[in-house]
Amino acid sequence: MSIVIIGGGPAGLMAAQRLAEAGHRVQLFEAQATVGRKFLVAGHGGFNLSNSDELAGFASRYGAEQPRFAELLSHFSPDDLRAWAADLGIETFVGTSGRIFPVAAHKPADLLRAWLGRLRALGVEIFTRHRWLGFAGAAGLRLRDENSGPGTGREFVIKPTATVLALGGASWAKTGSDGAWVPLVQEIGVPVVPFAPANCGAEIAWSEFFREKVGRVPLKNIALRVNDGPAVRGELLLTEYGVEGTPVYALTPAVRAALSAGGPAVLHLNLKPDLPPAALLQKLRQPRGKASFADFLKRTLHLAAPVPTLLRELRPDCANLNAEALAGLLTALPIPVSGLRPLDEAISTAGGISFSAVDEHLMLRQRPGTYVAGEMLDWEAPTGGYLLQGCFSTGAWVARGIAEGLG
Ligand SMILES: Cc1cc2nc3c(=O)[nH]c(=O)nc-3n(C[C@H](O)[C@H](O)[C@H](O)COP(=O)(O)OP(=O)(O)OC[C@H]3O[C@@H](n4cnc5c(N)ncnc54)[C@H](O)[C@@H]3O)c2cc1C
């Protein structure tokens, strides 16, 4: 009796570990030459494994799926994740932002290496360069050994006791998460919500002058909102194609909703979120004298380059505004969004297998014995550790469902 996991990302590897620990024979098939490629990519830009949010707040990050994630997170919580990492010899710490990171001495590759060592010790068999091609009858899985080259090789069918599909979303295709699995599950009638970019940059139609002059530069300590929505704090990155950064990523769902409703998606940038409105106004009422607009902003509000250029780009007459109008502009600078960056660039994807297609154990209703974990399910969450935690928690959850079902 063996359990088969398809996909060697964090969700699949966690399911494999939990099932092997419960005494099951586990075989994991991964299409790429190595497992955990996106996991390693996640490590390049900070590598937040999870977040120290209290559980109710944590679950609310999964939007419409909050109740389900509240249950998943209480089964495998951020504390469990930290204990799991510590058990692999990787200590973690909570950063000032609340994000949970491995301590500096540990690189993502160290964590993955230790994890794979543990899986080997538990007897998990990992077959890389093995691509899942679809279902075969009521109980089988079609696989191809691609060790001789992508798209070629011996095809075979296996009939596991239970299967976990953990094939990821549809961004960063070079890591293996290419979304090519969609027709394979649609074939048996599983509803899949179309993919859309999540946690990605927004495109702005900057002038050529602005693109050349400003390039890529951060704006620290700002607040950003979409239309009349709630504001998000953080650091904004101006780029040649638009804006990036944590607040933009957090607002992707709102931008996407506004754009798909055909309406305008306008970001409102507050450059001075910590200054009370009266204090801001008082500073702007100071006489400007002979100082240029840029010097005045720098002297009174410490707003240096590229802020004056940004203001002129979006409001050419900004230097001539009175104090009240300028205060309004500095606290709600409208930036019209023309689109979102392409799917493949996104940190994560919205869409995937609809939750209506799975039961409370994340088992496909159409195919008893086949479970789904990780980003291939239709959920989204902001950056800050919520993505990996969601993948780990769904991986642990399906392992529990299978172990209970077999037990
Ligand atoms: C730039 C970047 C930075 C990120 N930073 C963070 C971060 O700091 N914190 C955080 O929480 N999250 C972060 N993430 C997100 C996180 O990496 C993903 O959410 C997570 O890796 C998804 O895990 P998964 O197991 O669901 O899928 P994946 O990691 O995508 O794994 C799916 C696996 O399935 C394999 N596969 C696909 N199709 C087949 C097939 N037909 N047969 C066999 N195998 C197949 C793929 O090759 C892949 O190895 C980041 C992502 C990116 C791109």
**CATH class category of the largest domain:** Alpha Beta
* Rg (CA only): 24 Å
- Neighbour order of strands in the largest sheet: 17-16-13-14-15-12-18
Annotation, overall tally of beta strands: 20
Distance between the termini: 13 Å
Which small compounds were modeled alongside the protein?
flavin-adenine dinucleotide
What is the CATH fold-level name of the largest domain?
FAD/NAD(P)-binding domain
Strand percent estimate: 15-25%
Instruction: Report the CATH architecture of the largest domain.
Output: 3-Layer(bba) Sandwich
Helix residue percentage: 25-40%
Q: How would a crystallographer describe the biggest sheet?
A: 7 strands, antiparallel
Task: Kindly name the structural category.
Answer: alpha+beta
Helix count from the secondary structure assignment: 15
How many structural domains does the protein architecture include?
A: 2
- The coarse overall form would be elongated
The CATH superfamily of the largest domain is identified as FAD/NAD(P)-binding domain
How would you characterize this protein structure?
This protein is α+β, with helices and mostly antiparallel strands. The protein has two domains: about 260 residues, 3-Layer(bba) Sandwich (FAD/NAD(P)-binding domain), CATH 3.50.50.60; about 140 residues, no CATH class. Helix content is about 35%, strand content about 25%. The model has no long low-confidence stretch (mean pLDDT about 95). The chain contains 15 helices and 20 strands. Flavin-adenine dinucleotide binds next to helix 1, helix 2, strand 7 and helix 15. This is TIGR03862 family flavoprotein. Keywords: FAD, Flavoprotein. Pfam families: HI0933_like (PF03486), HI0933_like_1st (PF22780). InterPro entries: BaiN-like (IPR004792), BaiN-like_dom_sf (IPR023166), FAD/NAD-bd_sf (IPR036188), Flavoprotein_PP4765 (IPR022460), RsdA/BaiN/AoA(So)-like_dom (IPR055178), RsdA/BaiN/AoA(So)_Rossmann (IPR057661).
